[in-house]
From TrEMBL:
<feature type="coiled-coil region">
    <location>
        <begin position="24"/>
        <end position="174"/>
    </location>
</feature>
<keyword id="KW-0472">Membrane</keyword>
<feature type="domain" description="OmpA-like">
    <location>
        <begin position="186"/>
        <end position="307"/>
    </location>
</feature>
<protein>
    <submittedName>
        <fullName>Chemotaxis protein MotB</fullName>
    </submittedName>
</protein>
<dbReference type="Pfam" id="PF00691">
    <property type="entry name" value="OmpA"/>
</dbReference>
<keyword id="KW-0175">Coiled coil</keyword>
<dbReference type="InterPro" id="IPR006665">
    <property type="entry name" value="OmpA-like"/>
</dbReference>
<dbReference type="InterPro" id="IPR036737">
    <property type="entry name" value="OmpA-like_sf"/>
</dbReference>
<dbReference type="InterPro" id="IPR050330">
    <property type="entry name" value="Bact_OuterMem_StrucFunc"/>
</dbReference>
<dbReference type="GO" id="GO:0016020">
    <property type="term" value="C:membrane"/>
</dbReference>
Amino acid sequence: MLKKIAFLVVITLSVTSCVSKKVYQELESKFNNLRSSNLELLKEKDELLASKKALEANLESLKNDYAALKNKKLILENEFSSLQTKHKNLEESYDALSTQSSKKLAEQAQKNQELLAELEAKELKLAAENSRLEKLQKELKQRSEQIDELESLINAKEAQMQQLKNAISNALHNFEGKGLTVVHKNGKIYVSMENKLLFNSGSWAVGVEGKKAVEQLANVLAENKDINVLIEGHTDDVPYTGSTIIDNWDLSVKRATAIVRILENKGVDPTQITAAGRSKFVPVDTNKTAEGKAKNRRIEIILAPNLDQISKLLKEE
């Protein structure tokens, strides 16, 4: 067994050339930038969901305020109606007392003036409450429309991702069960390809069968210009022993960029694509068994919707 490994190492060393320190540093810098970009996208998603919850809470509060004001308006209208009745009764009393003494007439006139003043005050207060209620109704309607628009955009994005998942599953159905899975979760699509479908051990050159699978995926992605594509390279915990690159970090990045090249060559817009290497640090299974290691050696292609429209809507709040 050791002789076979040594023989493979000698062959690997004979067909690869050393990567300069400058190229390594450039790759490392690109990786760091891409990882930061990925974190920002995750953060932006969380912020969008938090903003949606805040808008829904605000909408519920406005509905409660609207109900309270409507009830208050009803009370004021009843008071106004009662005062009108009193005013009418007083006017009738005034007519009846018009033949009485001037003192009583003056007293009654004073009461009438006070009642009229109170009635005018109530009218003004009722008008102010009506104005406030109308303003609140407009604001409530605007908030409801914004919530509806936001939900419509989110539902449209989710439907788009489901259609994309179906298209990818149809395009790659010949490869499912051969180290390839397609999963739709958390609003994203995860296309996972084990290395046995793509690469030989320690290599980042894509094999014939793996290239065919990636090219079929590229045909679907090339028709979806508003999808963000993140390519993640993953390894097991066995250290890289070659001399062409440094370690599993380098290997995972190399494998990710190898997939990027195929997608770009098949017409996928490079501005949609991000390449990242995750080394051994995001396993999906144990590294204590050969089967687990095989699952951990993989390429994850994560497809996410473009959220620019939703971000723009939230910024208009």
